[in-house]
Amino acid sequence: MRELEQNREAFAYWLCSRAGIGAVTQVEILKHIQSVEEFMSCDANLLAKWCKQKKKFEKLEQEKNNLQQNMKNTKQIKQQLLENYKRLEKSGIRFFSYIHPDYPDKCRRIPDPPGGLYCYGTLPEPDKLSVAVIGARVCSEYGRYLARQFGRVLAENGVQIISGMARGIDGISQWAALEAGGSSFGILGCGVDICYPKENYLLYEKMKTRGGILSEYVPGTQPKGNLFPPRNRIISAFADAILVIEAREKSGTLITVDMALEQGKEVYAVPGRITDSLSNGCNRLIAQGAGIAVSPESLLQELGGMEKQQSAADPKKDTYCGSDFQSLILEMLELTPISLSEISERLVRIGHGISISELMQELVELTMIGQISAIGTNYFVKNPQKMR
Amino acid sequence: MYSTVYTGAVRGIESYLVQVEVDCSQGLPCFDMVGYLGNEVREARERVRVALRNSGIRLPASHVTVNLSPADIRKEGTGFDLPIAIGVLIALGQLPPEVTEGILFLGELGLNGEVRPVKGVLPIVREAARQKYKCCIVPADNLDEAVMVPDIKVHGATTLIDILSFLSHKDSAENLFSRKHSLGVSSKYNQKQGKENKQKNMDFADVNGQETVKRGAEVAAAGFHHMLMIGPPGSGKTMIAARLPGILPELTEQESLEVTTIYSVAGELQRTGGMIRERPFLSPHHTVTALALTGGGNRIRPGLISLAHRGVLFLDEMAEFKRSTLDVLRQPLEEKRVQISRQFGTYEYPADFMLVGALNPCPCGYYPDRNKCRCTDTEIRRYLGRISGPILDRMDLMVETPALDFSEILAERKNEGSSEIRERVLQARKIQKKRFTGTELQSNADMKTVQVRKYCKLGLTEEQFLEKAFAAMHMSARGYHRILKVARTIADLDHAGDISKKHLAEAILYRKTDQKYWEEIR
User: By CA distance, what is B491's nearest residue in A?
Assistant: First the structure.
């Protein structure tokens, strides 16, 4: 039994690692042929029928010939494919072909499922709520904060965070989820053995043990622009709902949203100020009817995944004990960074001008008690206490 | 017949006296020169011959040999023309040998017998004074700098004939005095006046807004700290930097002499004229080469960092400089002097300057305004990464210059002027001077770890405050001592004996940058 399964996977692995055949064809063939013997003896007409395009069929024929030329008989070919497969398993990468019993149903249900999935770590648990948190790679301080917040709170409530491990929103939300002790899954646009972008190396390593790194591309595939849009369908496939934190008007993130809508998934977007170009995409989605994610808690409630009961108020965090002057500064700050000079100017304008050095002390103290954060050289943002 | 005349030459910014020996003997008529000579010194032969002839002096056909002693130091520059000409005249018997006694000659000759300006007059005359020479004869154009040296008479000459007639009437002291003035053509004083006004026109009162940067500039000036300004284009970084010399204390007599000497050696003094009383402000373009910064090259001369000695070296668009160019600043920033070694010797120039850098926060310049800036974190890091860590480490203050809106730029406002800021700076300097009496240190920025421990002691609460602030702001301990130094300066500005929380808080914010910009962002 075990041997049979292995041979089947070995064949699927071979098929899925052929370049230029495509997921649709791979899946179609796998539906009919499950071993290399069947494949070698398969009628060319049948093959041609399964391959919807002539080009794909020619490519397949060529690969088939290659196999025959290099090896004497089918047994040897079988042996060879099995060896290749075992080598893959040995490297720690798990492979789930379309016909594998563990192949996720969520993927099987989408219009164009991947022929196979390569995986470090584990696959997302099917019974657990999964949310894809996605957004711009170049994000604002607002987006950064919200990605962290949503990632953390969702993870704390047992939601699996699915994303693309990209720079910006993706990586930040996933990192926050892992830090909160949750699990997160990164769907890559390159081979699972390649960490892209490189600066997310820590996240990549951590996700291997506390979730999974998944890809439909053969290990060793280098990241290329055209590989990323197709992988977005897998992100939305795994997710029960899509949450867009921040996106510009023309953003790659919106590709994922389109895929999600095609797959019939719920889409939520975080609203932003209409003057912020990074919120344009989100506001547009909302205008088009996407759900409005005003807080992680409300999102959880809508998704029906509220596990941890929220204590009404965390007094330590909510009530702020500082001088009147500090609360004056706090009122002035927002999530968009404001420079020290600007704060000073505004204080002067409302008749509370103080010297720069005194102001600096107040700001350092506020930073120390976690009310505000310093960004850049002398820019400050408020740390929102809780979102209601 | 044999003669000896004295002149001087420069090596680094030090000078030494050179003995010009001339011998005229019978033999095949020729003009030989020896003594480890550079090309331009060797060419003196032609200039001297023709200049003498055009001054109406006939040279009899004889074998002339000139030796510049000490013969084992390489001679460079054109100042040897005049002493050689005088030496030749004595050797030929056209001048009595005793007239040149106690006199040092220096000057380049034109073919028409004109005496032209040379470099390094100030240090040479000073050396002559130290060696108890009575008098120096220098080109008239160099008289301004020569008269700065006390205890020695200096005369400026415009032509060779003037000098000859002066030498032959030297007996009368009265004559000498009047000669000094008739020879001393000085038209440069007027220009100097204009120069001084230039700095007066640059006042901090012109700078609207930017209170943080102004305050930063004040602290930097008070402690002679290096400063880095980060901000979008057009936010006034250059404007503020140009006004920095105006709030620094005036050069002391000693400092002024140091700076003037460097400019004299570099041959820059003819342009500025007279003693340099203002702190230099240099702003090289970012295409500047490492050699131009440190000095050196084929003919060794002080570089920009030495010309900025005791003043401000302003590097605008710092990230556009070649990394290797910036890195040559490391040694000078640490040792406050620069050493240049060449095949024929090692030269040393002082380079105690205040480094002021200006920088865009990212390639487009608008970070963290995400509506304008679309640079990725990687791009930002790469951009700022062009400045190496060690250079960055030495910047005690980093301040942000936020973008200004039009109304702010155009507003007619009454801002604090440079003179008021300078007054506070001077007070703070006075405190430092008192603190560092008996040591080599001049300002808080000069303090090494030992002195930081001694003069920047913190109380228990302050120490805890600093520790907590470090943790809250995710700062590395690397800048610890620098923060203390800056805090010391801020306390000095406050006339406070002990460093308090307030001073620490401000100093911390000036160093805050490194965590955000230069380390992992998450």
Answer: A357
pLDDT for the residue B299: 77
Percent of chain B beyond pLDDT 90? 40
Same domain, B68 and B159: yes
Residue numbers in A near B400 (CB within 8 A): 339-341, 376-379
Sign of CA dihedral A183, A187, A188, A193: positive
- Within 8 A of A340 by CB-CB distance, chain B residues are 212, 400, 509
In sequence order, which ranges of chain A are alpha helices (DSSP H)?
A: 2-16, 23-32, 36-40, 44-50, 54-70, 74-90, 105-108, 141-156, 169-179, 201-209, 228-238, 253-262, 280-287, 296-303, 315-318, 324-332, 340-349, 356-368
Query: What's residue A280's pLDDT?
Result: 93
Arithmetic mean of pLDDT, B448-463: 90
Instruction: Examine the domain organization and report whether B181 and B200 are in the same domain.
Output: no
**Interval B182-202 mean pLDDT:** 46
**How close A216 gets to chain B, by Cα (Å)?**
27
Whether residue B182 sits in one domain with residue B201 = no
Distance CA B446, CA B280 (A): 19
pLDDT greater than 80 at residue A349: yes
Chain A hits for B513, Cβ within 8 Å: 376-377
pTM for this model (two decimals): 0.77
Long-range contacts of B181-188 (CB under 8 A, 24+ apart): B183/B140, B183/B143, B183/B155, B183/B156, B183/B157, B183/B158, B184/B140, B184/B143, B184/B147, B184/B155, B184/B156, B185/B140, B185/B141, B185/B143, B185/B156, B185/B158, B186/B140, B186/B143, B186/B144, B186/B156, B188/B144, B188/B273, B188/B274
Domain range for residue B78? 2-186
**Identity of the highest mean pLDDT range in A282-286, A341-345, B399-403:** A282-286
Residue B377 touches chain A, beta carbons under 8 Å? yes
Provide the shortest C-alpha distance from residue B398 to chain A (in Å): 7
Cβ distance A141 to B370 less than 8 Å, yes or no, reads yes
Residues B170 and B254 in one domain: no
Instruction: Give me chain B's average pLDDT, please.
Output: 85
The model's confidence at residue A245, banded by pLDDT at 50, 70 and 90, is very high
Highest mean pLDDT: which range of A306-320, A336-350, B222-236: B222-236
Task: Give me the number of domains chain B comprises.
Answer: 3
The answer on pLDDT for A105 being more than 60 is yes
Choose the closest CB to B376 out of A138, A358, A379: A138
User: What's the CA gap between B139 and B80, in Å, rounded?
Assistant: 12
Substitution target from A341, A367, A379 for chain B, most B beta carbons within 10 A: A341
| Inter-chain touch B371–A167, beta carbons under 8 Å | no
A345–B211 C-beta distance less than 8 A? yes
Contact B472 A337 (CB under 8 A): no
Same domain, B365 and B284: yes
